[in-house]
Amino acid sequence: MTASLLMTLPEEILGAAALLLMLVAAWGGSGVTRAISWVSVVVLAGAGIALFGAASTGGEAYGGLYRADAFAAFSKVLIYIAAGVSILLAPNFFQRTAGDDLRPEYPVLILLSAAGMGMMVSAGDMLTLYVGLELQSLAAYVLASFMRRDTRSAEAGLKYFVLGALASGILLYGISLVYGFTGTTLFSSIATAYGAGHSMGLTFGLVFVFAGLAFKISAVPFHMWTPDVYEGAPTPVTAFFASAPKVAAMAMAVRVAVEAMGPATDQWRQIVIFASLASIIFGAVAAIGQTNIKRLLAYSSINNVGFALVGLAAGTQQGVAAVLFYMTVYIVMTLGSFLVVLQMRDADGQPVETIASLSGLSHSRRGLAFAMMLFMLSLAGIPPLLGFNAKLAVFQAAVNAGLYPLAVAGFVASVIGTYYYLRVIKVMYFDAAGAKFQPGDSKVEGGLITVAAVFVSPIGWFLLAPLGLWTMTAAGSLF
After folding, report:
1. Coil, strand or helix: which one is 224?
2. How far from 361 is each of 231, 296, 355, CA to CA, in Å?
3. How high is the pLDDT of residue 222?
4. Which long-range contacts (CB under 8 A, 24 or more apart) does 359-365 make?
5. What is the pLDDT of residue 62?
């Protein structure tokens, strides 16, 4: 039992801290919001430090229900970083927006969501996976509708809740089918059952499980919630949705595919290839006509999930490592882009979300325009920015696995997405100057934008070797 407790130490830290801070919030009210936010960031850092021990190399805990390995540890580091950034972004945003001051429940909900995501990526059993997924989702539904006086936020929360409940039902039905035909919910035992021979019931269970997972990563055709929720939710919450839960859901899908359904690779690979190409193409085409920057980034996230799935389709250690590398670069590019969106405020300090409002930004805020250009070019996969290396990694994994048509189709489809990224740059640098944005007043946001821009720039190439070694080691723990 002691060994199991040590392996689950990060989740214990997050859960205990969330409960304690919830009591502090109830006692102190809105006056302790900033203090709780900073303490929450420290708690996330503490949970990250706790990963370097039994929590990363301990093996199985609680009879196989939970797995503490390098793959989970890598994913949790990304989750905690994204969660911490999302907490830091919130105070200034809520203070400026219609006087809707941030309430102390916000960082507590993110801590609870991070605990759920930790369970998701460490699950060794379908029920552990489902409990972690629901913990993450319940916190996310509240976060989406956090601005109670904003009808768009309330609508986003309701849509996310309804469609999320549907996806959870689909996933649970798939789990019940798998259990019914294997007699177990443990990943290792499920893999044994798939290796013994594929029945029609197991195949249906596989399809339903992957359908439920596809919703969580917003892959086509289960993407319908993404644009509306991203647009309606408060921008810090949208930045959170586009980063941490995306990493957790993708890591969860990889673990289920490799550990639980590894012997059925030929069956689930067809589903993943379809979802990959459909997401790449739809995300690129649908983004072309968007006028709202948050909706554009929503379709961009769908597009990028498609590229990450190319690595999963390979079904190899190199493919899984490529997925982890891609998600690492993706969350930096995405968080950087949303940090720029947070800087889009009119003279009264109110958020502005239209792409047209970026016109002339290169003259009024040169540094901000340059950073946004780096993020857009990196998302498009233009060399020598790090986004190019991320796309190259997943395509190489597909080619080495013999999936030449998938690699070629993904490469060709990536050209479509380049258009709308370049359109944002064109508006900033070549359109007639519009109304100026309010000057930036947050050193935290400015510093985070600088760090993200440096990471995706050619300077980030110095991190390629250690990052490649870390991702390959993490991927190796699944095989």
Report:
1. coil
2. 22, 18, 11
3. 81
4. 359/427, 359/428, 359/431, 359/432, 359/433, 359/434, 360/428, 360/431, 360/432, 360/433, 360/434, 360/436, 361/428, 361/437, 362/428, 362/429, 363/433, 364/433, 364/436, 364/437, 365/437, 365/439, 365/440
5. 83
Q: Provide the token pair at 189.
A: 């035992």
Please tell me the distance from the alpha carbon of residue 171 to that of residue 431, in angstroms, as a whole number. 47
3-class DSSP state for residue 292?
strand
Specify the pLDDT at position 286: 86
Residue by residue, DSSP assigns 331-369 as HHHHHHHHHHHHT-B-TTS-B--BGGGGTTHHHH-HHHH
Which pLDDT does position 220 carry in this prediction? 84
Residue-by-residue DSSP string for 159-208? HHHHHHHHHHHHHHHHHHHHHHHHS--BHHHHHHHHHH---HHHHHHHHH
pLDDT, tens digit, for every residue of 57-98?
Answer: 777 778 888 888 889 899 999 999 999 999 988 888 877 765
Highest mean pLDDT out of 3-7, 133-137, 350-354, 415-419:
133-137
Asked whether residue 172 carries a pLDDT value surpassing 60, the answer given is: yes
For residue range 17-48, list pLDDT tens digits in order. Answer: 999 999 988 887 777 888 888 999 999 999 99
Average model confidence (pLDDT) across the chain: 86
Rounded Cα distance between 147 and 110, Å, is: 15
Return d(Cα 236, Cα 228) in angstroms, integer.
Answer: 15
Terminal C-alpha separation, the chain: 26
* Residue 335 tokens, joined: 């968080």
CB neighbours of 9 closer than 8 A, spacing ≥ 6?
Answer: 50, 53, 54, 55
Residue 476 neighbours by CB under 8 Å, 6+ apart? 70, 317
Which residues on adjacent β-strands are paired with residue 61? 66
Tell the burial category of 405 from Cβ atoms under 10 Å away from its Cβ (0-12, 13-18, 19+). Answer: exposed
Of 462, 475, 336, the closest CA to residue 394 belongs to 475
Q: Decide: helix, strand or coil at residue 98.
A: coil
